[in-house]
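Example A, followed by Example B.
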Amino acid sequence: MIARADKTELKKEDFIAAGSNRWRYMVDKIQYEDKLKSIVECVTGLDRDAQEKAKEYQSRLAKPPGSLGRLEELSIRLAGITGRVHNKLDKKRILVLCADNGVTEEGVASAPQSVTYAQTVNMAHGKSGVAVLAKQFGCEICVCDIGVNAEIKDPKVVDRKIAFGTRNIAKGAAMAREQALLAVIRGIGLACDAVDEGVNVLGVGEMGIGNTTTSSAVLAVLTGQKAEAVTGRGAGITDKAYDNKLKVIRKAIELNRPNKNDVIDVLSKVGGFDIAAMTGAFIGAAYRRVPVVIDGFISVVAALCAYRLCPSAREYMIPSHRSFEIGYQAAMEEMGLKPLFDLGMRLGEGSGCPIAMMMLDGACAVINEMATFEEAQINDSYLDDIREGDAFSVKRES
């Protein structure tokens, strides 16, 4: 046994979930609280001077003011992230964090737990939805086993396994607090490794049967909303299974009593290794000052966790698509973010990220390659009056 900071003793079984034999990886990891705190303290806001320069440069491009809408906003955001007016995102990577969740025992998902393992391997070999989209749009994909309930001996899958899945949150805490911290730290490490390898934009996705249940539980606790207000049907379940899913989430929250003001406590009690590692990936991207794309529901819940731990991390986040899940909007609203598009997508995996990254490329192309009025030999004085206000919206009396 070893002593914890709160003077209670940790036993080997505190670190074991779903048959894990990875106690040896945990014994020396008790200082992660301080490590996480020190990383968060290093994350600063955007470069406002660079944003003002990008905004001024946009005003000189040969087009009506604001006519490229959110592409202009994105170019200004990128300037704040990188400190440069002109950017090129030539190395893209999607981090897919894969883990199993013990709560599948409760019948909350339509697919068996074995699908997590199968799809983890399929992703790594380019056969899943996110992998196909990533390839189509020139994005790398890093598939990481953070807690799949199986031994994966595949060189294409990055091994950061903490345990063989979490415990069933309807029967107790998903994991030990130290495990949640370790997952966050490993997510930060994956983001930092990517930047060290030349990646200049990240996306964050996942694979884990049952993780809409854990994500809904985390979101319900953090926002104080009732389970039914933030819980959808995931990959698709019957009315009976949906009612059961709500009961399981309510039971898990009542049983574990997570502290809504302590994100790590929430993650450890009703979350999953995937959500915790994704949380770290968002923080790691902000720490290393690169834009990071939010995918769908599970991804946005992890983004919210990162925001609660590190408020400045929000400024580095680029939402991709509007998720089909009903809880998605609650997380978006708290962070003050808006999705870039709505294609009715509900796959997860990080599938929205490569599409959003192409929009970021478009934003870069506009500010990098469009001619200014001067270069186009156009006298833009005709725009002086309409630059003073909104001369484009048509307002009608009701």
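Example B, a separate protein, is given below in the same form.
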Amino acid sequence: MKFSISHFWVACVLLCSCGTASNDVPRLEKPSLSIPSSIDQKLKAQELAWNEGDLGRFMQEAYWEDDQLMFIGSRGLTYGYDQTLANYQKSYPDPNAMGTLVFELLQWKPLGNAHGLLVGSWLLKRSGELENLDGHFSLIWEKRPEGWVIIADHSS
């Protein structure tokens, strides 16, 4: 018997229509978030700096102060600490534009002994005529002699 595309779709419909008790369906559990405490502290310090309107301190709290820092955002790829800070200052020229920042940390994935990937979401609560903004991020952290720093940031 030749198996055609129509047979495939009929099989899919039949399989999908077969009932399964809800307690038999495997559930995906949220990954544990055992983030290093120093990274958690840096992120809280970043939120505080942002919410006080201090972009310089926001950057200093966690970002690698180097020309090799990589930031990927809506405008594409940026290299360097100074250029990343300049882009933040252009996009958020005053505390009103900055709003109130809230991070939600979703997953920490160690990448060996000296690196890790942190995935999370961000929310900017803004007042007046400015809309709230939100998105997600993935940060690659590196453990350096001075402590953990962000070496790559992809925020959308």
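On Example B: The CA atoms of residues 17 and 149 lie 50 Å apart.
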